[in-house]
Every structure is written in structure tokens, then in C-alpha cells.
Specification:
By secondary structure, this protein is α/β, with parallel strands linked by helices. The chain folds into two domains: 12-104 and 195-224, D-Maltodextrin-Binding Protein, domain 2 (3-Layer(aba) Sandwich); 106-194, Periplasmic binding protein-like II (D-Maltodextrin-Binding Protein, domain 2), CATH 3.40.190.10. 33% of the residues lie in helices and 28% in strands. It has nine helices and eleven strands. The chain has helices at 20-30, 65-70, 81-91, 118-123, 135-145, 160-163, 178-182, 202-207, 209-224, and strands at 12-16, 47-49, 55-59, 76-80, 95-100, 106-113, 128-132, 149-153, 169-174, 185-194, 196-201. A hairpin with a 5-residue loop joins strand 2 (47-49) and strand 3. The radius of gyration is 20 Å and the shape is elongated. Keywords: Amino-acid biosynthesis, ATP-binding, Cytoplasm, Glycosyltransferase, Histidine biosynthesis, Nucleotide-binding, Transferase. Belongs to the ATP phosphoribosyltransferase family. Short subfamily. Its main location: cytoplasm.
């Protein structure tokens, strides 16, 4: 058992990231009768109590949520499919993903500068330089298409890469497309739809199922009412 694993009587710990995921998770948590005692955007606290003394929330970076859950520092968390793909490539298994919560919806896309003939470049077998935060998902996508790429990992401001000649294309999350348009980029290929999943530590599910299962069931009921 992980040295971080909670005792049977410790509060259930839910790992969330600030921003959209936190905001869209709150109504689902509310369906279980649980409310966060503080707004993480207004508080510097990283551990937030809730209206249920048996449940607490920890605030971590989105990319770190699966790590906290896998190693037992959190019993469960909410993470996007994009984050989970990248995490699995580095850390393997250890996470149970029982529910697609149908929140945080967007899509992972290939985007290029307006005017760049992506389809022609692919047909001609050009070797493309692609900047992305989502290296594993991009690698799998281009490998399946037989497209030769050099992947450049960036952690932010992906749209800048083609504008300054660092890359021919980017792979990034797209919601409304407004950021692409503002930077004269266009989405040319959808890789996959993205939404957020409830993830659960497998050891905790075995040792604390009686406490975790009602919360998992509440998430399942609430998410089933979300638009498909």
C-alpha cells in the first residue's frame, strides 16, 4: 500500500484543478449533497473542506491530478481524457475510470496557419514539425496515419509555434476556436473528442468501497443527466 494511502476513517480526498473542471464538477458534487466551503479562485488554500466533514478537496495542477490519485494521495479526482492519455504513457496503470462525466468538453485537433496546404503536405509525405503539449496522443495519431513528424513538446502558447517558424502545425485542445482564429490558424483535422473522467485509486476502492461507492454512484447519476 502507498505510504500516502489514507486510513479507513480519514476523509475522502477528491483532487481537482482550478478553472473549468472545478466549476463544472461542483454541480455534480452538489447532486451528492456536498458543497465546497471555499472558492479556490479566491482562496490560497490548497486543501478545501466541504459541507460533508467526510469529504475534502485538494487543488492541484490539471496534469498532476492522475498522479495524486494513482499514488494514493487522493482517493479520486477529475481529469480530462487528454491528461489521462499522457499520464498513462509515463506511469502505466493504477487508475480506475468508471465514469465519463461529460464535462470539460472540447476536441483535440491538428491546426496549421491559414493558407498552409496540410492535406497536400501529408499526401506528398512531407516530414512535419508539430508542436504540442499532448505528445503521446499526437504520436499515436500521426503513426496511425503513416505521417512522419518531429514532435516538439511545449507547455503553453502553442499557437505561437507556427507563427515564429518553430513548427508547421500544432496539436492542441480546441473549444470555440476563437484563439486559433485570433492567431490566423485553422483546425484541419480532429483527433478525438475530449471530456473529463472521474478517476479512482484502485487500492482505495478495495479498502474503502463502502465510503467511495455512494459518491461514485452520485457522480454517475448526475453525469447521466448531462448533455451527451
Amino acid at each position: 500500500m502507498s505510504p500516502f494511502a489514507a486510513s479507513a476513517n480519514a476523509p475522502i480526498t477528491l483532487a481537482l484543478s482550478k478553472g473549468r473542471i472545478f466549476e463544472e464538477t461542483m454541480p455534480l458534487l452538489g447532486a451528492a449533497g456536498i458543497e465546497a466551503a471555499e472558492d479556490p479562485e479566491k482562496s490560497r488554500k490548497l486543501i478545501l473542506p466541504t459541507s460533508d466533514p467526510g469529504v475534502r478537496i485538494i487543488i492541484v495542477r490539471a496534469s498532476d491530478v492522475p498522479t495524486y490519485v494513482q499514488y494514493g494521495a487522493a482517493d479520486m479526482g477529475v481529469a480530462g481524457k487528454d491528461v489521462l492519455i499522457e499520464h498513462a504513457a509515463e506511469h502505466g496503470g493504477g487508475l480506475y475510470q468508471p465514469i465519463d462525466l461529460r464535462i470539460g468538453k472540447c476536441r483535440l485537433c491538428v491546426a496549421v496557419p491559414a493558407g498552409f496546404d496540410y492535406a497536400s503536405a501529408v499526401r506528398q509525405g512531407a516530414r512535419l514539425r508539430v508542436a504540442t503539449k499532448y505528445v503521446q496522443a499526437a504520436r499515436e495519431h500521426f503513426a496511425a496515419k503513416g505521417v512522419h513528424v518531429d514532435l516538439i513538446k511545449l507547455y503553453g502558447s502553442m499557437e505561437l509555434a507556427p507563427l515564429v517558424g518553430l513548427a508547421d502545425a500544432i496539436v492542441d485542445l480546441v473549444s470555440t476556436g476563437s484563439t486559433l482564429r485570433a492567431n490566423n490558424l485553422v483546425a484541419v483535422e480532429d483527433i478525438m473528442p475530449i471530456s473529463s473522467r472521474l478517476i479512482v485509486n484502485q487500492a482505495a476502492l478495495k479498502t474503502r468501497r463502502d465510503r467511495l461507492q455512494p459518491l461514485i454512484d452520485a457522480f454517475a447519476r448526475a453525469s447521466s443527466e448531462m448533455p451527451a
